[in-house]
Design goal:
Number of strands: 0
CATH superfamily: MFS general substrate transporter like domains
Helix content: over 70%
CATH architecture: Up-down Bundle
Distance between the termini: 26 Å
Number of helices: 18
Structural class: mainly alpha
CATH class: Mainly Alpha
Strand content: under 5%
Largest sheet: none
């Protein structure tokens, strides 16, 4: 399918946006709040070793995604259809997430846990390449921003809803439901089954109601071979896509800053402001709420003034509020500045997706969204590494966190000269 919003009913668009609701349970519950903490505290021999192993697993998944996404995206462009690829990677993530139920609180389960979480993460991230690339075929160009923003906002709401069910129905329930044995951490392990069922159930509307491009009719072998040739041609003629590459370089830097903020924000809150784990989780949930609201609200701004100006506004907001958080001393001010900072997190992400939709040539959209995924993963190690070095050298968490502002500022400065035609300007 090659049409726009005039040829797609709103049911198909809402079904597309609902996929963000479906897939957000995995990063929220599995990799951020619940299962990662369970692995480090109850499965690994020590919390320190568990943290290191979990970090290495996330890095490995990120590297696989970075290397595979442009190749698979190029192949999908040759094959035409995207839903079969999205369905395969969704099924892979769902199956491996459900398999985490078998990760018992025993160091012997460490290899199983790491293998499953790496493959599940790869499935979730590669699926997003094909999901994101569907947007330009579904929405009118003048409405890319709102649909990207609404999808991102719905995603935050879905992740938080799944997290709330995980915490209140399973993890913190006394006694646990369904006769789950807390001595074997079954009430915690059951959250993996919840996330798998959540993803599978809420992904269904996209596969039932959202249209796809027509298949090219090429056999799979030629699809892959032609995809590799197309990717090689794109890279060989990279100057033809200078605007896209310039944007992706800028995005690589500011996404590194955002990812580092997500990874170390809780550590900063606990170490510098003495917040307990419960307070950190409460703050994380509250900040996710403001991020979702910001993404949904700024979708209108994106369509009105353009995706690039929206990203610029978001980055300026992040830099201003983030800098203020580096100098305040009280928890009250941490909350008062941290929550509005969250308003700018979602728009920086959702407007980046809509800007890529504006920039990508129609024949290369999935390939370009593969490069988009690469730009968010290939240097994911850099932000945390620089933060760690500066923290050690200065013996100060505040100094380390200041490196996040440097990444955001560098991304902003690189983005400013990017010339974007049409609605993305």
């Amino acid at each position: 399918m090659t049409g726009h919003a005039s040829t797609v009913d709103r049911r198909g668009l809402w079904a597309w946006a609902a996929f963000d609701w479906a897939n957000s349970g995995f990063p929220t519950v599995i990799t951020t709040f619940v299962f990662g903490a369970y692995f480090t505290k109850a499965v690994a021999p020590t919390p320190e070793l568990g943290t290191a192993l979990w970090g290495q697993a996330m890095a490995m998944a990120g590297l696989i995604v970075a290397l595979a996404s442009p190749v698979l995206g190029a192949a999908a462009d040759q094959g035409g259809r995207r839903k079969p690829w999205l369905g395969a990677f969704t099924a892979l993530c769902v199956a491996c997430t459900a398999g985490l139920w078998f990760v018992v609180p025993d160091p012997a389960a460490v290899p199983l846990a790491l293998a499953l979480v790496v493959v599940a993460s790869v499935g979730a991230e590669l699926g997003n390449v094909f999901y994101n690339a569907m947007l330009p075929d579904l929405a009118d160009r003048d409405h890319y921003g709102r649909w990207s923003g609404w999808g991102w906002g719905i995603g935050y709401a879905g992740g938080l809803t799944c997290l709330a069910i995980s915490l209140f129905v399973f993890v913190q329930a006394k006694p646990p439901p369904f006769g789950l044995d807390p001595d074997q951490a079954e009430h915690v392990r059951a959250t993996s089954l919840l996330v798998a069922a959540w993803f599978a159930l809420f992904a269904l509307p996209l596969f039932l109601f959202t249209p796809d491009r027509a298949p090219s009719g090429l056999p799979f072998r030629l699809v892959v071979a032609n995809g590799l040739r197309a990717l090689a041609a794109t890279l060989a003629n990279i100057r033809r896509y200078r605007t896209i590459m310039h944007f992706l370089l800028a995005r690589m830097l500011f996404i590194d800053g955002l990812n580092t903020l997500f990874a170390f924000g809780g550590i900063y809150a606990a170490g510098t402001f003495g917040m307990s784990l419960a307070e950190v989780i409460q703050f994380g949930i509250a900040m996710n709420v403001t991020a979702g609201l910001g993404a949904a609200a700024f979708g209108w701004v994106d369509d009105r003034i353009g995706a690039k100006p929206t990203i610029v506004i978001a980055l300026v907001g992040l830099i201003v509020f983030g800098s203020a958080l580096l100098v305040v001393e009280s928890r009250l001010w941490f909350w008062l500045l941290g929550l509005p900072l969250g308003l700018f997190v979602g728009p920086a992400q959702s407007a980046s997706r809509s800007l890529m939709a504006h920039l990508a040539p129609e024949a290369l959209r999935t390939e370009m969204f593969g490069l988009f995924a690469l730009s968010g993963k290939i240097t994911a190690f850099l932000g945390p590494a620089v933060l760690g070095w500066v923290t050690l050298a200065a013996d100060s968490q505040r100094a380390g966190m200041a490196t996040i502002i440097a990444f955001l500022l560098a991304g902003l400065l690189l983005l400013l000269p990017v010339k974007v035609p049409g609605r993305g300007k």
